[in-house]
Write a structure and sequence with these properties.
By secondary structure, the chain is of the alpha+beta class. The chain is built from 10 helices and 9 strands.
């Protein structure tokens, strides 16, 4: 990434900042690294700052090419050197930085791609578009501004001044905007996430099948415009609640609310409720394996996709199975 421009307007990080670096070469006093967010600017990871434990072998702690999270100890703007510490970065801070870096990398990737298309310096384009968004206090960072723009919550072009000091890009503004829009929609539009939970719902009281149906229909009351909940029969008395939305947190909250609604409804009718599988995210690879697994699985997962379009998703076949189950129970 060195030589691809810097992510932010500042040429140097601040002291105590956590930065992302790539190890370039290991020496006796530590390791020389490149700061990935700052156009590959060189820094030194000091030997004494590699680990809180006693170091027996630097090669076990560092590898050339590996990405590390470091804290800035000193940054001399005049001489150009940056001293870094790996041992002072707490795991929680590294995790936060990892997410921020991923967002910043996505933003810079868009800037770099469009700049390359137009044969202009990436820093010139960043100066007009992404850097002002980082400095805008309305947003956490430029990535948030990009996402809000894609979701039509704001019009970020109202915040971009193509005439500000620097390289004049005004003659190319409309074409640049169009190409940035294409990249934004291609890279930042969040794909729909699918979540599910499995539950056992049964009722041996007089209302039986009606109580089960009513309780499962209660799950749909948790649905919102952004997150639609459905119920599917797997194999009596096991049902699966699913939802699809773009926000993982919202999906889990909605499914948990749906579970509570079902539990309250069926228990009020004298029935029983048990969670088999807590709400979980279903990946595309997992769904593919389930589709290819065929019949005979213990939980009947192979039938899940076939039932996706059924009512509620309790169709006549599902209701008939429940009726037969109830008859069998009564005979016992």
């Amino acid at each position: 990434m060195a030589g691809d421009g810097r992510f932010y307007e500042a040429e140097f990080p601040e002291v105590d900042d956590v930065v992302v670096v790539q190890v370039k070469r290991i020496v006796e006093m530590g390791a020389y690294v490149s700061l990935l967010e700052y156009n590959g600017r060189e820094g030194m990871m000091l030997l004494s700052e590699l680990s809180k434990r006693r170091i027996r072998s630097v090669s076990k702690l560092l590898k050339v090419g590996r990405t590390e999270f470091c804290m800035v100890l000193r940054a001399d703007h005049e001489k150009g050197y940056i001293d870094l510490s790996k041992r002072r970065v707490e795991p929680a801070d590294a995790k936060i930085k990892e997410e921020k870096f991923a967002n910043a990398k996505a933003v810079h990737g868009i800037m770099r791609h469009v700049a390359t298309q137009h044969g202009i310096a990436v820093d010139d384009l960043c100066m007009k578009v992404s850097w002002p968004l980082y400095n805008n206090k309305k947003f956490v960072d430029a990535h948030e501004a990009f996402k809000k723009h894609v979701n039509e919550e704001i019009n970020m072009w109202e915040l971009v001044d193509w005439t500000q000091p620097g390289t004049d890009l005004t003659p190319h503004a409309e074409k640049l905007k169009a190409d940035i829009e294409i990249c934004l929609k291609r890279r930042l539009i969040t794909q729909a996430l699918r979540m599910r939970a499995k539950v056992d719902v049964s009722c041996s009281e007089f209302e039986g099948i009606d109580a089960i149906k009513e309780s499962l229909l209660k799950a749909m009351e948790a649905s919102t415009e952004e997150c639609d909940v459905k119920a599917q029969l797997i194999a009596c008395p096991t049902f699966m609640l699913t939802c699809t939305c773009r926000d993982k947190t919202l999906g889990f909250e909605t499914l948990n609310k749906a579970l509570d609604l079902v539990k309250t409804a069926i228990e009020s009718k004298g029935g029983e409720f048990q969670v088999r599988t807590k709400p979980e995210l279903v990946g595309t690879e997992e769904e593919k394996r389930e589709e290819e697994s065929g019949s005979g699985s213990e939980t009947g997962d192979s039938d899940e996709e076939e039932q996706d379009e059924t009512m509620g998703n309790l169709d006549e076949k599902a209701l008939k199975e429940l009726e037969e189950k109830k008859v069998d129970d009564d005979d016992d």
